[in-house]
Amino acid sequence: AQSVTQPDIHITVSEGASLELRCNYSYGATPYLFWYVQSPGQGLQLLLKYFSGDTLVQGIKGFEAEFKRSQSSFNLRKPSVHWSDAAEYFCAVALSGNTPLVFGKGTRLSVIA
Amino acid sequence: NAGVTQTPKFQVLKTGQSMTLQCAQDMNHNSMYWYRQDPGMGLRLIYYSASEGTTDKGEVPNGYNVSRLNKREFSLRLESAAPSQTSVYFCASSDWDRPGYFGPGTRLLVL
Asked: If you average pLDDT over every residue of chain B, what do you get?
């Protein structure tokens, strides 16, 4: 069965600092990979996705993620964090774009001045 | 283009009451899903429908039923609500190259 691990439950970064959120997955083949963001009391917004091709994926809001097959990882990065980035971030995998997502438990990001 | 819509936004139930959560999408997606979100647990799949007329159980289906009414609509029913079903419920839809669009969620409190 597919599984997704987000090792960090909570991360605090200073505004303007760089950010990396970790995601590891367990699956027999290369799955479709996703990062979602959820602000408090809100729904989920897709930040970026990887299906195939270039392993460095650009998303919205200045985020990017890199797929590393050898490490079964899909880490999310941002060079300079803004206070508005404070939210919960979920990594997810799927067999295809037409099958259910399996989510990690999420990483809560706090941003301090 | 409203995307994925859910009703109601909030609901309070007493133990044993029943209710139906409604979900509709206007993106012509084949697949639709119901997830529940609980603190520290991420999102867990309750049921999904790969196409009109088909439904399958997910990770946590007990206590729920679903109906794929047509391509647009996918409802989730709680026949006899329990406090353990207090959660935030998200509906989503997707297609081959258009993954995981989520609705705004329904917050359910079962007393």
From this structure: 94
Would you give the distance in Å from CA B108 to the centre of its chain?
12
Cα–Cα distance measured from residue B94 to residue B92, given in angstroms and rounded to the nearest whole number: 7
What number is the average pLDDT over the span B55-78?
Answer: 96
* pLDDT digits 0-9 by tens, B17-41: 999 999 999 999 999 999 999 988 8
Residue contact A44–B102, C-beta within 8 A: yes
B79, B65 in Cβ contact below 8 A? yes
SS3 state of residue A61 = helix
Question: How many Å apart are CA A2 and CA A44, to the nearest integer?
Answer: 21
Question: Which DSSP state fits A28?
Answer: S
| Per-residue pLDDT at A86 exceeds 80 | yes
* pLDDT over 90 (residue A16): yes
Contacts of B35 in chain A (CB under 8 A): 103
What per-residue confidence (pLDDT) applies to B98?
Answer: 73
Q: Do A101 and B104 touch (CB under 8 A)?
A: no
Q: For strand A32-38 and strand A24-26, is the pairing parallel, antiparallel, or unpaired? A: unpaired
Partners of A98 on chain B (C-beta within 8 Å) are 30-31, 50, 94-96
- DSSP strands (E only) in chain B: 4-7, 10-13, 19-25, 31-38, 42-49, 56-57, 64-68, 74-78, 87-95, 98-102, 106-110
